[in-house]
Write a structure and sequence with these properties.
Length: 654
């Protein structure tokens, strides 16, 4: 048979099947080519990144924070190297085993590991997650020893904050902490922060966060199949934060802390000619180095639950009745208003009777007929009771506000309190009742409703020392870039003038000089134990009404002891420094607060004091706030929501 025979007999349906098969194969090849083009061309960048991540890992390189110096260039906050522990979740082969071993190798629990992983859930793939920072040397060695058994774990070195003087500068400088979700959201637009970053949480670290924080860099690490680091492939160096020069004199700062650290209270010092803060200490303190690095949950709980409110900066947040330190301000108001003259003598006995009540003096035998100078020197209560009634509460309030009471000073720190200056209008607004003259008697000696912070009182005494200028406190003298370029430099800024004549101010300063130099002065021991020409005023602010008064402070339960004040400046003929000290429940200002102030004066002015007891007079013993010894006399606590009640019948003892 011929071939044409079979050709003619070829079924038509067979040709259709071949054509369909060829078409299907062509479509498949087209789709495959299109897919290859899509993956290799259109999605090239994405898959290149995934491929690179099989061999590299990214770790942020935190920027060193700016260095902080005192007024003469002594470092008080710097940076040191420390080891951080990271993990790449995608490299972990066995999570239960990894978590179990981690809890044994470093001080971390499974809850903390899970929390760190949860916070970083939105991170890019293969980006390392920080599990723990600032490992101890022992923890670092253990991790290195077991790294082959824990795929995905890495150690890296980063700068850690170091506070050179520890607790002595704790409340001033503050500390760092991990950024919260709220803070992260608030700073989202800045693009500088991510989960796990450290941020200023307190003090100057918080207030000047934008200046002190630098710009983070990063490392691209080559790793092996188990995620272990081989070498650094790429390195973008971080840019350090700006440096700061403070107005703080570290010698005065340390002297203040050393004299106060076993007590509860605050010390603040200022240059009265410029408003520059020379020292700021609050006790009890905390270790900012621990808070900024390896603090455990138990340690943090112990701090925040401490009944003494460790994180309260008493220099700007503690509000106390100014007590007898208010008397020079009262005297200035009375002299300026002509209610009294420097020569006016008033009988100041052991008690002053008003409306059938006895308002007692701290001195049981009284002071006799005295003028305003002796009233300041001897801290007479009954003298100022009578003058206060003549002056009236509203005129007292007006002059008190001129000295800066009742308003924030504007110091560059968060959380400053404004204190309280009572007046007849204030009482009508708050309590919906009128003011009674008996309440004026308490306010006239710095008690009753009146409240001030130590920094406010310091500002007032600086104004007395400099002749009437009220300054805005300065803490940061200068901010510079890492290269040394000056970004900002502080200049003295006036908040106002007292509007009081120099003649009046001269009388007040002379009275303060007499407190430390005249016979009968409540702090005369200062002139006998140092030649620094200190002028100042002691004060004892009541906490409870004592039915029976005693000079044996330790016989009174600690919580009922009076607060002790000292406010003053030196030298009195050319003031270079003003100092205020408050010792909570310290007893008498002369014995508890004045010796602390003396040490600050000595440290700043650079002179050593002769031994106590020169010329036959010993300095009063200091009274530390020890625990109650059980011998508690009858006391009546004084309390009211938000303010102190007036104490009409109780006297003060300076």
């Amino acid at each position: 048979m011929s071939r044409s025979y079979f050709k003619d007999k070829e079924p038509v349906e067979f040709k259709g099947r071949v054509f369909a098969a060829m078409l299907l194969v062509g479509v498949c090849f087209f789709l495959l080519a299109a897919r290859l083009w899509y993956l290799q061309v259109f999605e090239h960048s994405y898959f290149l990144e995934l491929s690179m991540n099989n061999a590299t890992r990214l770790i942020k390189a935190p920027a060193p924070r700016g260095v902080v110096y005192d007024r003469v260039g002594v470092k008080i906050a710097e940076n040191r190297p420390g080891f951080d522990l990271y993990i790449v979740p995608e490299d972990v082969k066995d999570w239960p085993k990894t978590k179990e071993m981690l809890t044994k190798l470093v001080q971390i629990d499974e809850e903390e590991i899970n929390e760190a992983l949860e916070k970083s859930s939105k991170r890019p793939p293969f980006q390392a997650v920080k599990l723990k920072e600032d490992l101890s040397w022992e923890e670092t060695v253990r991790i290195e020893s077991f790294k082959f058994e824990l795929p995905g774990l890495m150690l890296d070195v980063s700068p850690k904050r170091s506070y050179v003087f520890g607790e002595a500068t704790a409340h001033l400088l503050g500390y760092l902490g991990e950024i919260s979700e709220k803070e992260l959201k608030e700073r989202e637009d800045e693009g500088l922060y991510s989960s796990g970053d450290l941020i200023g949480k307190y003090g100057l670290e918080k207030y000047f966060e934008s200046d002190l924080r630098g710009i983070d860099g990063g490392k691209e690490l080559e790793v092996d199949a188990l995620g272990r680091k081989i070498r650094v492939v790429n390195w973008i160096p971080p840019y350090p934060g700006n440096n700061m020069k403070l107005t703080i004199d570290i010698k005065a700062q340390v002297a203040a802390w050393a004299s106060l650290h076993d007590k509860v209270g605050a010390v603040v010092a200022m240059d009265p000619k410029t408003g520059k803060v020379l020292a700021m200490v609050s006790t009890p303190g905390f270790d900012p180095n621990t808070l900024s690095s390896r603090i455990t949950r138990e340690e943090w709980r112990a701090i925040i639950e401490n009944p003494l409110n460790v994180l309260n900066n008493r220099a700007i947040q503690g509000q106390y009745p100014p007590a007898s330190t208010y008397k020079p301000i009262h005297a200035a108001a009375a002299l300026e208003e002509g209610v009294i003259t420097p020569e006016t003598k008033i009988y100041s006995g052991p008690s002053f009777w008003f409306a059938g009540r006895a308002y007692r003096d701290w001195k049981e035998e009284g002071h006799g007929s005295i003028n305003v100078h002796r009233a300041i020197v001897e801290s007479s209560d009954t003298f100022f009771y009578q003058v206060g009634l003549k002056l009236g509460i509203d005129r007292l309030a007006d002059y008190t506000k001129r000295f800066g009471f009742g308003t924030k000073t504007g110091v560059p720190l968060h959380g400053e309190k404004s204190g309280l200056v009572p007046s007849s209008e204030w009482k009508r607004k708050v309590y919906k009742v009128k003011w009674y003259e008996g309440e004026t008697i308490s306010v006239s000696v710095g008690q009753g409703y009146m409240l001030t912070t130590p920094l406010q009182l310091l500002n007032a005494y600086a104004a007395i020392a400099n002749g009437g200028t009220l300054w805005r406190p300065i803490i940061v003298e200068e901010i510079t870039t890492p290269e040394g370029k000056v970004i900002s430099r502080a200049e003295p800024e006036k908040r106002g003038e007292l509007g009081i004549s120099e003649k009046t101010m001269s009388h007040v300063r002379d009275g303060l000089r007499g407190v430390t130099h005249d016979e009968g002065g409540t702090a005369r021991f200062l002139s006998r134990t140092t030649d620094l020409k200190i002028a100042g005023k002691t004060g004892t602010a009541q906490v409870a009404r004592l039915i029976k008064r005693t000079k044996n402070i330790e016989s009174i339960a600690y919580k009922y002891r009076d607060h002790a004040w000292f406010a003053g400046f030196a030298p009195y003929d050319d003031p270079q420094i003003a100092v205020v000290v408050i010792v909570e429940h310290g007893g008498f200002g002369a014995s508890a607060a004045a010796p602390v102030a003396r040490e600050v004066f000595k440290a700043y002015l650079g002179k050593e004091a002769p031994p106590a007891g020169v010329e036959g007079e010993a300095a009063p013993p200091e009274t530390a706030p020890t625990a109650p010894d059980g011998r508690t006399p009858s006391v009546i606590p004084i309390s009211a929501p938000g303010v102190r009640q007036a104490v009409p019948e109780e006297s003060l003892n300076d």
